[in-house]
Structure prediction request, 546 residues.
Amino acid sequence: MADAYDARTPTVIADDVHITYRVHSGRTAREVHAVKGVTFVAHKGEAIGLIGSNGSGKSTLLKAVAGLIRPARGRVYTRGQPSLLGVNAALMNDLTGERNVVLGGLAMGMTRRQVRERYQRIVDFSGIDDKGDFSTLPMRTYSSGMAARLRFSIAAARSHDVLMIDEALATGDAAFQRRSKARIAELRATAGTVFLVSHHHRTVTETCDRALWLEAGTLRMDGPAADVVAAYEAHAKAKK
Amino acid sequence: MTLTATSPAPAPAPAGPAPDLAALAARHGLVESGARPCLPEYTRRLWGRRHFVTAFATARLTAQYSRARLGQLWQVMTPLLNATVYYFVFGVLLRTKEGVRDFVPFLVTGVFVWTFTSSTVLAGTRALTGNLGLVRALHFPRAALPVAYAVQQLQQLLFSMAALTVILCCCGQFPRPSWLLALPALGLQATFNTGLALVMARLASRTPDIAQLMPFALRTWMYVSGVMWSVSHAVRGDKMPHLVAVALEWNPAALYIDLTRFALIDSFAAGQLPPYAWAGAAGWALLAGVGGFVFFWQAEETYGRG
Prediction:
């Protein structure tokens, strides 16, 4: 078995990963067992879709891969520093768009020089200056679509070894969605491995060659994307 | 239903990680994700994020008053108004000013220097709990957050010091060479504050209730720190037990306040400082700065989990 694994270069190894959360509500604290013993090996050049119902542990598992949560048991090994395509949290609504581009870029680990070099591309890509000079206005004055576009543009401005994308990112009008799809494909080409969390099964079968199906924190199935999606859909239908 | 599940059965999990995967990872040079780096490496990574730290601090400082009509003017107005309130309560109503020369400069310096410590400590308790989204979304040394909050308070102090200069000049205290001594005093205080903010950030991330207790703890600390009364007057004579007098004099906040007063106010002479005041101030800064950093680093991988 080890020999079969060795044929390709692994980028992420999840070895019996268990993740527990401590949830406080008032004076009672509960342990939530979000991921229960997941094992998989991801290789260079793979695009892996993560499917499963809400609360099945998809996002939690990705956070462990990104090194943001430490597994309670088991280990995650990675090549390079995997990054989650999420920069929303670093941005501040009271600041102008241009200052948020700088802040977000630095938060993702770019140097000041990289931010300066990519600044114009980020603003142009987001299209926030298409209708007036919005980059000099506070982000709280943006429409929700505009803010989402700017966030995606900042997040996608940098290439990554292992990249994890949450579907919620692909927002905005049709033109922007086309641009962001193309950008995700570009990021996939430069990244070693891409993980994609999605509820849109067509997106998974179109963009991924492999899929993991998580259910209640355990790995139900791991295989070619089309097969896993088909099995998941059959399961979801049976439940109805 | 039948599934072609290739996933491992939820069979009894082995006690440790399966050896073959660990070996595979080692063969291909993969490293454990989310493991805490060693202290020098951690420090190096934090230094690599210095631009983020300053940008984050400045962004927070600017965002603070961005919705107010008077905007950034509040950076100076807030400390001035604070000083006025304290002057009326402690100078006019309670008359703690008796026996203290140049009471207004004495009081205002005390209030501003104390505020620097108290607001940094308070900010530290919120540095992680108030940024869980950031901690859970992006990878960076978590110490960047409490340090950024401390830097923000340092920036705020610069505004307070500008206001203080105006007040001192109004009271007939004009800039002179000894004012330069305020730089090492406040520098040591900033180091002390940052260390304490790191400690509080770790404690509050584990026990958020600490944030509720902080206002009380800080107020008690303020009343014993000689912000609006003179420590040297109080400990003079044999009115209080020796241990209490020593504790009052070596209280880090009192040391930083009195050293800054010594630098800025003519009539505040070296005789009003405890012996070895500078050594004490430096010792506290070193202890809190290094100790706080190591203490924070030790729990690095747990932040954002609870």
Observations:
- The longest helix of chain A spans residues 174-190.
- Residues 1-5 of chain A have pLDDT under 50 and may be disordered.
